[in-house]
Design brief:
The protein is an alpha/beta fold. It has helices spanning 17-27, 30-35, 42-53, 96-109, 124-145, 166-170, 229-241, and strands spanning 11-15, 59-60, 68-70, 85-91, 121-122, 151-157, 164-165, 189-194, 198-203, 208-215. The protein has one domain. It is globular.
Length: 255
């Protein structure tokens, strides 16, 4: 089917091994180990972008600057913005990570963990409306910090235990679930990660959302076959930097 037919939605297909290699590259960066906050998912954004751009970030936020800077990267048709590019990474606020800390402390002390805990069910559109103040805050921060010579971008991290989007969980792709009208004039792109396995990007150039799909070699076994491919990529990063726990490594089974 041709693009001119007006049917279908855009997607970017990426070889999964690219992410595994990116996890190792990011883990080797001293700035990543000291600056990226695992609880906020900043390491995940760095891994995704390193793999897709084909290079490690050139700078991390050490003194109030943008979270990630890419001074140079190979030309990409799907990212038609001249380097350098800066990214602000934002995780949507919620109570899950605080609850997780309590659960981990309970397990460590031998006490019974306080499960179950209540969830609210959302749609992708509701989550994005809830995320609007967070995106605006990131947009204003980048406009204040960076000159127009930089491509300005926001990477949003969600967590299903705070924002369980049922339609996202039930769908193979999410671009058609995202808001059609995106009104952030100062941003060149917005990325949204829906753990455990979906990534989507909006581009000012195209004015559409693009699903980013990772093609995984079925002959290569996962370290943990109960987790998604992206969670296994995170395990690679965690092992390399000596981290034992992450709020994004979890498993949900629907009965």
């Amino acid at each position: 089917m041709s693009e001119e037919s007006g049917h279908g939605t855009p997607a970017l297909l990426v070889v999964g091994q690219v992410l595994q290699e990116a996890a190792e590259v990011v883990a080797s960066q001293e700035g990543a180990r000291t600056c990226l906050k695992v609880r906020s998912g900043e390491h995940l954004a760095a891994i995704f972008l390193c793999g897709l751009f084909g290079c490690a970030p050139s700078a991390f936020d050490r003194d109030g600057g943008p979270d990630l800077v890419f001074d140079e990267y190979p030309e990409k048709s799907w990212f038609p913005y001249a380097s350098p590019a800066v990214f602000e990474i934002k995780s949507l606020p919620g109570s899950f990570r605080e609850q997780l800390d309590l659960l981990l402390r309970s397990e460590a002390s031998g006490r019974r963990a306080g499960l179950p805990f209540p969830l609210r069910l959302w749609t992708a559109a509701e989550v994005m409306r809830d995320a609007h103040p967070t995106i605006v805050m990131a947009e204003r921060s980048l406009s204040r910090k960076m000159s127009p010579d930089y491509s300005r971008n926001v990477f949003l991290i969600t967590h299903p235990f705070d924002h369980f989007a049922v339609d996202v969980a039930q769908s193979l792709v999410v671009s058609d679930l995202m808001p059609k009208n995106v009104g952030y004039d100062s941003l060149d792109s917005i990325w949204v990660y829906w753990p455990p396995d979906k990534l989507v990007m909006w581009s000012k150039a195209t004015q559409v959302w693009t699903d980013i799909i990772f093609a995984v070699n079925p002959a290569v076994p996962f370290a943990d076959d109960k987790l998604s491919f992206i969670q296994n990529v995170e395990l690679t990063y965690m092992a390399a930097v000596g981290i034992n726990e992450s709020p994004y490594v979890y498993n949900i089974e629907f009965q």
